[in-house]
Amino acid sequence: MFHCETVAARQMHGNAVRPTSKGRTMNGTLTVVVLTLTLSGAALADTANTQAKAATTFGYLDIDKDARISPQEAKADWAVAQRFAQADADHDGYLDADEFRTLTR
Questions:
Q1: Which pTM value belongs to this model?
Q2: pLDDT of 7-51, one tens digit each?
């Protein structure tokens, strides 16, 4: 009886609800599905944006276009300059694309 009163009250206020055979509403299920799809899409977009920013930043920092970033070039980005020595895995004094990608993860 309570469920019927709730449905009737919602219908009067313009919030039509379609009960399922178990007495639950479809709105709750639909909300969960939409929210899940939205969050999944946002996560994929965020990953793509992060990868695009890293590639753009590497290209931007590599001023002489020798496919590596020197300590001098890294100074254009404070965060890269601060972690340069830590990111230089092979200790050659430069960051290559793989080292830079690891740094920006």
A1: 0.50
A2: 555 555 555 555 555 555 555 555 544 445 454 555 545 555 555
Residue 93 pLDDT: 97
User: In residues, how long is the chain?
Assistant: 105
- The phi, psi pair for 90, rounded to 5°, reads -90, 5
Residues 58, 73, 90, 84, CA torsion sign? negative
Q: Say yes or no: domain 2-103 is CATH 1.10.238.10.
A: yes
What phi-psi label fits residue 93: left (phi over 0), alpha (psi between -120 and 50 degrees) or beta? Answer: left
The answer to whether the CB of 99 falls within 8 A of the CB of 88 is yes
Quote the CA–CA distance of 36 and 51 in Å, as a whole number.
23
Two tokens, residue 45: 């977009």
SS3 25: strand
